[in-house]
């Protein structure tokens, strides 16, 4: 009788040096490493060709030095003003909101889904971990001409990114016709409210 023994390896996560303490079977490593909170953070700016990666603690410093055009507003209730929403092609508007001791990235992205069909996607990301993001909620609101459009959700961590939110439709989605109902001379004001959640 012939007996074949399979080798089983237990491996430390590749992010052990940055704080991950898990020891996993080698078959579980790739899946975990894709979602590990200790993997390096990429630059969260959508549409930017920035290849920066670093620790969570270094993200805000990177944004302030490499992306100086991003405005930061203080407070839990602000207005995010996207100017010239009629610009052709794909366009991103980005702003930071600082409140509750955290920084949030507000993004309005216009994409051309297919020839002549554009859509707007608005989302809030926390400059923080997924677990920290669960402590907050955000509301995006378009107001004007006796109309109101509101979206409420939990912010995503910048680890997830804008693309994942858009792919899963986990954001405020509207087309140019809706945008024009709320725009004023090609500028769109989005009321953004961040609140804390009781856990």
TrEMBL record:
EC number from the UniProt entry: 2.3.2.27
Protein species of origin: Myodes glareolus (Bank vole)
Enzyme class: transferase
GO cellular component: cytoplasm
Function: E3 ubiquitin-protein ligase that mediates ubiquitination and subsequent proteasomal degradation of target proteins. E3 ubiquitin ligases accept ubiquitin from an E2 ubiquitin-conjugating enzyme in the form of a thioester and then directly transfers the ubiquitin to targeted substrates.
Protein family according to the UniProt entry: Belongs to the SINA (Seven in absentia) family.
Domain comment quoted from the record: The RING-type zinc finger domain is essential for ubiquitin ligase activity.
Keyword terms, alphabetized: Metal-binding, Transferase, Ubl conjugation pathway, Zinc, Zinc-finger
Protein name per its UniProtKB record: E3 ubiquitin-protein ligase
Molecular-function GO terms, alphabetical: ubiquitin conjugating enzyme binding; ubiquitin protein ligase activity; zinc ion binding
